[in-house]
Amino acid sequence: MNFNCVFPDCSFKQNNIEEKDFVDHLRESHKDQIKEIAEKQDIPIHMAEMITTSNSKVFINSG
Ligand SMILES: [Zn+2]
Where residue 8 falls among pLDDT bands split at 50, 70, 90? Predict the structure, then answer.
Protein backbone atom coordinates (compact mmCIF):
# COMPACT_ATOMS: atom_id res chain seq x y z
CA MET A 1 0.00 0.00 0.00
CA ASN A 2 1.15 3.54 -0.68
CA PHE A 3 0.94 6.25 1.94
CA ASN A 4 1.37 9.99 1.84
CA CYS A 5 1.06 11.37 5.36
CA VAL A 6 -2.00 13.59 5.66
CA PHE A 7 -0.43 16.05 8.09
CA PRO A 8 0.70 19.09 6.09
CA ASP A 9 3.86 19.62 8.13
CA CYS A 10 5.03 16.07 7.48
CA SER A 11 6.82 14.84 4.38
CA PHE A 12 6.43 11.11 5.09
CA LYS A 13 5.74 9.30 1.84
CA GLN A 14 6.27 5.58 1.36
CA ASN A 15 5.25 3.07 -1.25
CA ASN A 16 4.59 -0.63 -0.74
CA ILE A 17 4.41 -0.58 3.04
CA GLU A 18 1.95 -2.27 5.33
CA GLU A 19 -0.79 -0.34 7.08
CA LYS A 20 0.82 -1.18 10.43
CA ASP A 21 4.06 0.45 9.27
CA PHE A 22 2.17 3.68 8.70
CA VAL A 23 0.50 3.38 12.08
CA ASP A 24 4.01 3.06 13.56
CA HIS A 25 4.87 6.35 11.85
CA LEU A 26 1.77 7.99 13.34
CA ARG A 27 2.70 6.74 16.80
CA GLU A 28 6.28 7.94 16.45
CA SER A 29 5.68 11.32 14.83
CA HIS A 30 2.10 12.40 15.42
CA LYS A 31 1.20 11.17 18.86
CA ASP A 32 0.05 14.63 19.99
CA GLN A 33 -1.87 15.36 16.80
CA ILE A 34 -3.66 12.00 16.94
CA LYS A 35 -4.54 12.65 20.56
CA GLU A 36 -5.88 16.07 19.61
CA ILE A 37 -8.06 14.60 16.84
CA ALA A 38 -9.38 11.93 19.21
CA GLU A 39 -10.24 14.52 21.84
CA LYS A 40 -11.75 16.97 19.37
CA GLN A 41 -13.99 14.34 17.79
CA ASP A 42 -14.54 12.45 21.02
CA ILE A 43 -13.36 9.15 19.57
CA PRO A 44 -10.83 6.57 20.81
CA ILE A 45 -7.15 6.99 19.87
CA HIS A 46 -7.16 3.85 17.73
CA MET A 47 -10.07 5.20 15.73
CA ALA A 48 -8.29 8.51 15.14
CA GLU A 49 -5.32 6.45 13.96
CA MET A 50 -7.55 4.47 11.61
CA ILE A 51 -9.11 7.61 10.13
CA THR A 52 -5.73 9.29 9.66
CA THR A 53 -4.34 6.11 8.11
CA SER A 54 -7.20 5.85 5.67
CA ASN A 55 -6.89 9.56 4.79
CA SER A 56 -3.20 9.06 4.08
CA LYS A 57 -3.65 6.12 1.73
CA VAL A 58 -2.79 6.83 -1.87
CA PHE A 59 -4.74 5.00 -4.50
CA ILE A 60 -2.91 4.88 -7.74
CA ASN A 61 -4.71 4.16 -10.94
CA SER A 62 -2.08 2.10 -12.66
CA GLY A 63 -4.23 1.75 -15.74
ZN1 LIG B 1 3.57 12.01 9.13
Answer: very high
Of the candidates 53, 60, 21, the one whose C-alpha atom is nearest the C-alpha of residue 37 is: 53
Q: Could you tell me which residue, 63 or 23, shows the higher pLDDT? A: 23
| Whole-number average pLDDT of the chain | 95
State the distance from the centre of ligand 1 to the C-alpha of 52, rounded, in angstroms.
10
**The overall pTM is greater than 0.85:** yes
Query: CB 39: neighbour CB atoms within 10 A?
Result: 11
61 Cα to the center of ligand 1, angstroms: 23
For the stretch 1-35, what's the b/e string if a residue is b when 16 or more beta carbons lie within 10 angstroms of its beta carbon? eebebbeeeeebeeeeeeeeebbebbeeebeebbe
